[in-house]
Amino acid sequence: MNKNNRRDFLKLSTATALAAAGLDGAERTPAAPAAFPLAGASAAPSPPPPASRPYAPMALGIIVGLGNDPEATIAEVHSLGMPTCQIDTDYLDDSLIQRLQTALDKDKVVVTAMGTDGPGPYIYNFYDGPLTLGLIPRPYRAQRAEKLKKFSDLVKKLNVPAIRIHAGFIPEDPNDHLYWEAVEILRDVIGHINQNGQQFLYETGTETPVTLLRAIKDVGLDNQGVNLDTANLILYDKANPLDALDILGPYVQNTHAKDGLYPTNGRDLGKEMEIPHGKVDFPAIIARLRKLNYQGPITIEREISGPEQMASVKRERDYLLKLIQS
Fold it and tell me: How far is CA 134 from the centre of its chain?
């Protein structure tokens, strides 16, 4: 998996020019190692109250790339009969924000979270992933943190409630100096996002559920939540997603409906599959979310491109609708 073929929904690729939106950031010296801070206070999740959400619990959605044609992107979501979506984009400016807002109002689609990544490479395997993904790698950390803050400032204009990213491979050992560097940079970025009235959602996959829970509590801010990616926990061989809900359930605010297989070698992630042909037990996942009084959406993520992607998404939509409505 590489950065360019992930989440390439209907070939609506995200733009790469960042300077116009002020999202590129100046070159910076990598952050210096931080001293070991005291662990933050335990943080209880504080998602938006259900009454404020303009969609029903488990409303279906899809993750899309924005590109430079928000009207076509949101019209495609609407054509699928989905009331929600998540958006990934590397580019935002006031003109694009206004066009996106107009399209959302026209087609009555709600954006539940937005994400971005970069600058620098993102390589999705077990060797290069820890060196390139998210906020953990020292060479990219400061620039990515600054970009996320500016991205949050822009997203605020859309009243989108959450920023969702892969934080990176958070170290499992809390005695590892890199773990506390991760806590420090996450606290800085999430604090800024909190000032904008937004939730910060960790997408699952790159660390065990216990490691993620520990980081949430050590960061210690009350605007933290989890975006449960049902397949990533399997693709990265970190947990069974159903078992992960025993640990992370109260923090889950958004869910990616995705399926996959466990890795078969020590270098590459497992293979993503069309729902329900992988290892995710979706009937059990939906049932457990109901027991947790889950109020968020179910957001389809299908990591293939070309004509088959739309056909696959429609089959997944129909399968999930039967589970949700049963």
Answer: 11
Q: To which residue do tokens 């329900």 refer?
A: 276
Of the chain, the end-to-end C-alpha distance in Å amounts to 35
Answer whether 39's CB lies under 8 Å from 217's CB. yes
Q: CA angle at residue 171 from 166 to 177, to 5 degrees?
A: 125
> What's the length of the chain?
326
In the block, tokens 């069974």 appear at 240
Where would I find the beta strands (DSSP E) of the chain? 60-65, 84-88, 110-115, 162-165, 199-203, 224-229, 252-257, 259-260, 272-273, 298-300
Q: Which two tokens stand for residue 241?
A: 């997603």
- pTM for the full model? 0.87
One-letter amino acid at 46 equals: S
Q: Which domains does the chain have, with CATH numbers?
A: 3-12+48-325 (3.20.20.150)
In 3D space, the residue among 228, 223, 224, 257 whose CA is nearest the CA of residue 245 turns out to be 228
Count, in order, helices (H) and strands (E) of the chain. 10, 10
Which pLDDT tens digits describe the chain residue by residue (326 residues)? 444 445 444 433 333 232 333 333 333 333 333 333 333 444 455 555 555 678 999 999 999 999 889 999 999 999 999 999 999 999 899 999 999 999 999 999 999 999 999 899 999 999 999 999 999 999 999 999 999 999 999 999 999 999 999 999 999 999 999 999 999 999 999 999 999 999 999 999 999 999 999 999 999 999 999 999 999 999 999 999 999 999 999 999 999 999 999 999 999 999 999 999 999 999 999 999 999 999 999 999 999 988 899 999 999 999 999 999 99
CA-CA-CA-CA dihedral for 178, 183, 187, 193, to nearest 10: 80
